[in-house]
Amino acid sequence: MTILPENFENERTLSPMFSSFMKEFKLNQLFRKCSIRKEKGIPVGRFIKNYLVPRFVQYILVTFLGLSTAFFLPRFLPMDPIKQQLSQYQAFGVYIPPEQLEEIMGTLKQLYGLEGTLFEQYINFWKRLFKGEFGPSLARYPTPVIQVIAQSLPWTVGLLILTTVLSWIVAVIAGGIAGYYRGRWMEILDGIVMVVRPIPYYIMSLLCLILFAYLFPIFPLSGGIGVGRELSLSWETMKSIVLHGTLPALTLLIVGIAWQFQSMKLIIQGVRSEDYVWYMKAAGVKEQRIVFRYVIRNAMLPMITQLGLQFGTIFSGALVTEMVFAYPGVGWILYDAVMRGDYNLIMGIMCISVVAVTTSIFLLDLIYPLFDPRVRYR
Amino acid sequence: MRKSKSLFRDLTKDSRFTIAFVILLVLVSLAILSCFSPYHPQRMYQVPRGRPPSWTHPLGTNWLGQDVFWQLTFAVKNSLLIAIVASSISRVIAILVGMGAGYRGGVIDRILMTAGDTTMVLPILVVLILVSTILREWARYLTNLGLLLAFFSWAWDARVIRSQILSLREREFTFVAVLSGMRTIKLVLKQYLPHVLPVILSTLINNMSWAIGMEITLAYLGLGIDPTVPTIGTMLQTAIYRQALFLRLWWWLLTPIITGIFLFIALYWLSVVVSEYLDPRTRFQRIGIR
């Protein structure tokens, strides 16, 4: 790339040459597309056998093991939900004669679905799972687990989808630009990110809480909605929800953007030194066009993977952030469930989260060959 | 010796390394200073409570009558101890599993990798909360918590090591070594280990900051370490639990937060510089899963 005239970068001065180059470039691309299509027709059988089937088997196996762990692990908790229930009754001043105690415990076990050996319970668990239910919540009996989760899921999912998508978009664009161009501003931006990136989200949320809720009380300290407010579609309620959600969202955004900005920037720095970028620059393609049409798009692939993986982790919630802000999401009820020995609720949340993660990995594996033809021939 | 000296000089050319190194040096000397503390770390009401920073108490005293500065020295020592235990043991597991799976292949490979994948798929924080609730008495001790953390953080690195071994196994020097009758153990230790060492080193530092972070998270939820033993996490938890902010004892709350931030920044910069130095291509590993 050394023997170029100095004015080579200007598009207008070489328009005839440039147009012929672009024609060739497009032809090349067309040719490449055709050749891929031609090859694609042949190895479909091999593709299914070597790529799809092993991945599917892996998916089923890992999901099975993960779900089994979700069943067994909570059952080793030292809290006995039945004894807790009994002591709760006794705390209200109910006197239970010792001869009735056994009977009551038996009935509770039956109600909770805890009778029989561990193995029988395990079989029951799978039977129920295929019907799509996890049984009743033990601490909030008889509300079904599904209903408890359904109440808190909108809070978490709303918060996390918004922050995940928003931080992804901002990080991809900002990281792409910062990775491609160099200059004073980029260095300052990079310096800020280098400091923010290693700060974990729970410390960030504490900092935000101290800053914006205590020192400068702009936002409310805790909760998902004002005290005593009913959920409705009125203007006041909406405002309250947004106000309560701002701080958790802000911390998740800052951490998410810094983390993905860094990855995007590194990928871009790898892509920008590739030959085709030099080629286009030499041919006088506008810088903007190179960045947005080619470089960023080529760097998207690992970023799409990251986004997919993050969607998988949404369902286990941002536990500590929710704890810090007392936000009524999945993380909050999960912690509550662990403390009260609510096996079924823990199991339900863990199952949903395991299935979400494995499924999103599997789906990524499925769509990956569509984006990247190189994967098909591995 | 001369080699390590020139390596050090090369690394200090990056200002980030110098800053990170100085921060870590300060923190380590704080940890060493804890041996000379005039106060017992767990006893309360040894000094007047709620005093702001002064000459006798450089970082003030907390509401429990403990000197915050000397508490901090113990906290840094204990947090670093957990990090070192967790990261070194998880590294040993990762090396064993990765090399075993990569070199042997076949059924062993498949079993080990499925086990690793399963630990990666589980919501790790939830599992850690559950396990540390189940083993509450056991996880109260520093080294035990380190072991627990180690058990959940080897999978990703084992995968990376395995993939490296897979490609090394096909290289010619392996055939030469096998044909000349080198024992498998010696082959793995002498020929393969140097190749995977860079990865191990850069993930070691990442893993340390992960372990410290997990300790803080668990302590924040009131789990893990015995809350009277000072670590960065338990200091933070005590300050929040005793409403330090509303008592206007900001030095009590901010000390663990700022120390934590410095520690995380130092470890991150160190890992960035080291991995860039070792191999520019390992940049991508930093993007990592965590």
Description:
The complex is a heterodimer of chains A (378) and B (290). Helix content of chain A is 75%, strand content 0%. In chain A, helix 2 runs antiparallel to helix 14 and helix 8 packs across helix 9. Chain A starts with 14 loop residues before the first helix and ends with a helix. With 290 residues, chain B is an all-alpha fold. In chain B, helix 3 packs antiparallel against helix 9. The longest helix of chain B is centred in the N-terminal third of the chain and has 37 residues. The two termini of chain B are 35 Å apart. The C terminus of chain B is likely disordered. The interface between A and B is large, with 52 and 40 residues.
Short description:
The complex is a heterodimer of chains A (378) and B (290). Chain A is an all-alpha fold. Chain A contains 15 helices and no strands.
Strand and helix map with partners:
The complex is a heterodimer of chains A (378) and B (290).
Chain A: H1 15-41, H2 44-72, H3 81-91, H4 98-112, H5 118-131, H6 145-180, H7 184-196, H8 201-215, H9 235-271, H10 275-283, H11 287-313, H12 319-325, H13 330-340, H14 343-371, H15 373-376
Chain B: H1 2-12, H2 15-33, H3 68-104, H4 106-121, H5 124-134, H6 142-151, H7 155-169, H8 172-179, H9 184-220, H10 232-241, H11 250-278, H12 283-287
Helix pairs in contact in B: 2-3, 2-11, 3-4, 3-6, 3-7, 3-9, 3-10, 4-7, 7-9, 9-10, 9-11, 10-11
